[in-house]
Structures are given as structure tokens and as C-alpha cells.
Design brief:
Pfam family, one (chains A, B): Vir_act_alpha_C
CATH class of the largest domain in chain A: Mainly Alpha
CATH superfamily of the largest domain in chain A: Winged helix-like DNA-binding domain superfamily/Winged helix DNA-binding domain
Helix content of chain A: 55-70%
Oligomer: homodimer
Order of helices and strands of chain A: HHHEEHHHHH
GO molecular function (chains A, B): DNA binding
CATH topology of the largest domain in chain A: Arc Repressor Mutant, subunit A
Keywords (chains A, B): DNA-binding
Largest sheet of chain A: 2 strands, antiparallel
CATH architecture of the largest domain in chain A: Orthogonal Bundle
Number of strands of chain A: 2
Organism (chains A, B): Pectinatus haikarae
Strand content of chain A: 5-15%
InterPro entries (chains A, B): Tscrpt_reg_PadR_C, Tscrpt_reg_PadR_N, WH-like_DNA-bd_sf, WH_DNA-bd_sf
Chain lengths: 182, 182
DNA sequence: GGAGACATGTAATGCGTTACATGATTTG
DNA sequence: CAAATCATGTAACGCATTACATGTCTCC
């Protein structure tokens, strides 16, 4: 987990698409990108400065309104090279999910422990919300075939996430039902 | 990620089942527990000492062979209380997957980029291996109905993980096929 | 004019990895 | 008797969160 500095490549990837401020990047993590990555602004701003020192990105200042300074960052060719290299690197070992539903469930031994039902009903709510959000985004972003082709990776990961949530929800509801009938 | 100290509860949960050495705990992370949690020994040993200082666990020394000292840790009632409290706490927000396949895929825009095929074939191998392992474990541990009942949480999380890998693999193979036919 | 969003920073702390370090035991 | 595994530790470092801190702009 530590020592990979994945945020670096997430930022480079986002900046390859558009010039962005730190604040813009932060906001992107609250949309479907949040399904696979998140970082706080307190980590993003220093990382942007570091990338600029490494000459992978540059910045330009813009004034918005009377005096609000916004710093837009732009990717440089060395940044694109670094991103491309990372994209071609072999994948790591699969990481543990570290998901707290699974974690807690593992430590409850008895079928009739009331806490299992509580865990399931909480988990169903969490995932229902996520499923609804992702489905809505799919509709907004990729109802046209053209958009699917133009951001193919994004389209695929969204499809993947929706399938995951759908399968998961179905399983959760099935098990929850059979827990109640016992 | 930081600031939760989940390892603490993982250790308490494991120690509630059996007395264990730090080395035993490390080894458990290489079996199906590794699907949802992993820590290095360099984090486990200090954490065990910390838990002992907090009076949640105690230890006893055993000599194995001539002079090899093994420290077994045992959970105390305060430890069980802490574990139970954690099990009843509401679940956190769903965390981002931070999975590098998804991450990389997101940043590849064009359907015909060769790197998409490479990513998929690597990912299929990773997940096939995992699926095979989990399925084997299911057979070893839970072929008897009795074992399913006695470690019900463990049984459920294994079932869940196998379903996840199975669904994922099916999707990966489908997409991979349609990528090649283009 | 106030609430809420926009916008950018730093400091303290802790989780987690990598690397360094040592010795005992088992197995072939 | 050597290699692999068992067994336990510490140190350095970096990723990540929480909290502290400040000021601007937009919209009602």
C-alpha cells in the first residue's frame, strides 16, 4: 500500500485528459472515480508540487473573479512518458479487500448470531446506494455509442463496477432472506 | 486507511479462536484470510506488544526443541469486549478498491489500444489463480454441513469471494473475447 | 450579509512497507 | 550439512488521515 505512490499516476492520468486545479482533482474523487481511488486535498496539493519539481507537470495561475488565485496544472511530455511506462508495467499481486463487512463477518461463528443480520442489512444499504449511483452515471455518460468508444476504459470500469455491485447485492439479498427464514 | 487500526481487531478476532504466536498470525494471512487482510510481521509483533500493554491480551512463553522461544498470545476478557464492541459498530463508508487493473484501464481511452488486451490477459491470470485457490479451500474446509454451521461467518465470506471471482472472471473473458474480435 | 461552496495550504500523527538483523529447527 | 522454514525483533521512510488555518466567491 505505502511505497507505491499510486496517487502520482492517478494525477498524471487525470491531467492528460484536461488541465486541472487541485480542487478539481479532489472533486473528481467524489464521482465514479471514487470507486477506485480517493485522496484528501491535504495530500493532493503537496503531491502536485512534487510532480512539478520533478518536471512531470507545470502550472499556470488564473485569477477568478477579483483576486481568487487558481493554479491549473498541465502535464508535460516527461509526465506522459512516466504515465505510459506505468501503464505498461505488470500488475501487482492482488491486494486484500480490507473491506470491513467481510472482516467482521469472518469473526462471527454462529449462524444465529443476530449481528450477522445487522451486518447484512447495513451492507445491503451501502451497496444499493452505490449501485444506484453508478447506474445513473452510466446513463449520463455513456448512453451514446460514440461516448463509449471515446472513453473506452472509463466505460469498461463503470460497467465492471455495476456488474460487481449487482452480483453482490443479489447475493446479499439471497443470504439475508435465508437468514431470516431460520 | 490510516487511523483505523483494523489490524488490532483482526488480531483479537483470530486470538478469540485460538492462542497464537505472531508467526502463526503472519501465516494465516497467506491463506484465504489474505483475501481480505494482510500485514507484515514487522507490524504484527509490535502490535501484539501494544495490545498486551493495553491489557487486551496476555502471553505465555513456550520452548520448542532445545531453546527456541515461542510467545503465544491469549485474549483476555477486555479483549473480547473490545472485539464485540467493534463488531457492533456501524460499517464505514465503502472504501475505494485501489485496484491497479481498474486504475490503469480507466486511463486508456481507445478501444484498439493494445494495452487493453494486455491488461485483460494479465488480470484473467491473476483472478483464475485466486478463484482456483478459493475453490480448493472451500472443498477442504466446508464440504461437511457441520463445518459450515460451526464457522458460519468464515463459510459466508469464502462463498462471497468465490462468487466475486467467478463473476469477475466471466466478465473479463467475455470482454477479452470481444476485444479480440475487433 | 450570511451560508455554502470554492480554493489552497501546513502540522501532527499513525498505519504500513522495505530493509536490516539474528538465531533455531527441520528436512532432505 | 545445507537449504528452507521457523521465529522474533528494530529502524527508516513514506503514504494517508485528521486537524488546524485562511481567505474568496456566488447565490439567496
Amino acid at each position: 500500500m505505502a511505497k507505491k505512490n499510486t496517487l502520482k499516476y492517478v494525477i498524471l492520468g487525470l491531467l492528460r485528459q484536461h488541465d486541472l486545479t487541485g480542487y478539481d482533482i479532489k472533486k473528481l474523487f467524489s464521482c465514479e472515480i471514487g470507486d477506485f481511488w480517493n485522496s484528501k486535498h491535504s495530500q493532493i496539493y503537496p503531491e502536485l508540487k512534487k510532480l512539478e519539481e520533478e518536471h512531470l507537470i507545470t502550472s499556470r495561475m488564473e485569477i477568478s473573479g477579483k483576486k481568487l488565485e487558481k493554479t491549473y496544472y498541465m502535464i508535460k511530455s516527461a509526465g506522459i512518458d512516466a504515465l505510459d511506462k506505468w501503464l505498461s508495467d505488470p500488475l501487482d499481486e492482488i491486494q486484500p479487500t480490507r473491506d470491513d463487512f467481510t472482516l467482521k463477518l469472518y469473526f462471527i461463528d454462529h449462524r444465529h448470531d443476530q449481528r450477522i443480520k445487522n451486518l447484512f442489512s447495513e451492507e445491503i444499504l451501502r451497496h444499493q446506494k452505490k449501485f444506484d449511483y453508478l447506474s445513473a452515471r452510466m446513463g449520463e455518460l455513456f448512453s451514446s455509442r460514440e461516448n463509449q468508444e471515446q472513453n473506452f476504459g472509463h466505460y469498461l470500469i463503470l460497467k465492471k463496477a455495476i456488474l460487481r455491485e449487482n452480483t453482490q447485492l443479489k447475493w446479499l439479498k439471497d443470504e439475508y432472506r435465508s437468514l431470516k427464514n431460520n
